[in-house]
Specification:
Elements lengths: L4 E5 L6 H14 L3 E7 L12 H32 L4 E7 L3 H9 L4 E5 L14 H9 L3 E4 L10 E5 L4 H16 L2 E9 L15 H11 L5 E7 L3 H12 L3 E5 L2 E4 L2 E4 L1 H9 L4 E4 L1
Parallel strand pairs: 1-2, 1-4, 2-3, 4-5, 6-7, 6-9, 7-8, 9-12
Antiparallel strand pairs: 5-12, 10-11
Pfam family, one: Usp
Organism: Cupriavidus basilensis
Family: Belongs to the universal stress protein A family.
């Protein structure tokens, strides 16, 4: 599988141009196409009987959103022209919720490039935020890009491996990038933190050997790196990645139901918020 269609989230955040540059490079490696998505948000229609004034302001708000979309289109064209002049691209302005727009468009893409979630949570999150919603509902791998990251060299790729379905899906989706890597390290993290399950190798003989052999048949050589400690699993994985000086982390994205909506688990959310390098996740 190659990344022939790369979908990228466009927004007003400072990292948008860097994210587009990375998406363009990703598509260029596969002679692919980049689709930039600008979601203007839900268009609110005036209530019946609200009067002409309500309709006027609703239309004014709509025009402002479309003007913002036109500005985003111009910025996207500039960024693509600078990043990869020979790569084809399309800009889509969608008058709907950001998460919904990215999910619908992302289902016909090979990978969805998203902005990383902002820093630590100030309050507990009860509903999924945009990257979480896209990860859990699109059925495609997502690539979370921290602000300031413009390139994806894939010199050293780390895999967070626990033998689970999500991790297996992430490895399969990452094969094109793993083949590019000069080094691949499979990271197993075991935590003694109270009440937290181990995110490490299943207690099955040859668990890592099976993954190693599978990757080897794809032409990918891997080594094992096990870490354990009293910190939470997400933090252990991030510390291991920094120690290894990896430039990409591949990880399964785990979720569970809460208030009728899927939200990510603690380890997944930690990786989504605090990774200093791009993270390829699959659910």
């Amino acid at each position: 599988m190659y990344f022939k269609t790369v979908l990228v989230e466009l927004g007003a955040d400072p990292g948008c141009a860097d994210r587009v540059n990375l998406a363009a490079e990703l598509a260029q490696r596969s002679a692919g196409h980049v689709i930039g998505v600008t979601a203007t948000g839900m268009r609110l229609e005036p209530f019946r009987g609200a009067g002409d004034e309500a309709g006027y302001y609703a239309e004014l708000a709509r025009r402002q959103l479309l003007a913002q979309g036109a500005e985003a289109s111009a910025a996207f064209h500039r960024a693509m022209s600078e990043a990869a002049p020979g790569v084809g691209f399309t800009h889509r302005i969608i008058e709907d919720d950001v998460g919904w727009a990215l999910v619908q468009q992302g289902r016909v893409a090979d990978v969805v490039v998203l902005a990383r979630l902002p820093g630590p949570e100030s309050i507990p999150v009860l509903v999924a935020q945009t990257p979480e919603y896209v990860l859990l509902n699109t059925g495609r791998p997502v690539l979370l890009v921290p602000p300031g990251v413009r390139h994806l060299p894939c010199e050293h790729v780390a895999i967070a491996w626990d033998g689970g379905r999500e991790a297996a899906r992430a490895v399969a989706d990452a094969i094109p990038l793993l083949r590019l890597a000069k080094r691949v390290t499979v990271v197993s993290a075991s935590s003694t933190h109270d009440g937290e399950a181990t995110h490490g190798m299943p207690d099955v003989p040859g668990a890592h050997a099976g993954l190693r052999d599978h990757l080897a048949r794809q032409g990918i050589t891997s080594v094992m790196h096990a870490v354990q400690g009293s910190h939470r699993v997400g933090q252990l994985l991030l510390e291991a990645v920094r120690h290894l000086q990896a430039d990409l982390l591949v990880a399964g994205g785990y979720g569970h139901a809460r208030l009728r909506e899927l939200v990510t688990g603690g380890t997944t959310r930690t990786l989504m918020r605090h990774a200093d390098i791009p993270v390829l996740m699959s659910h």
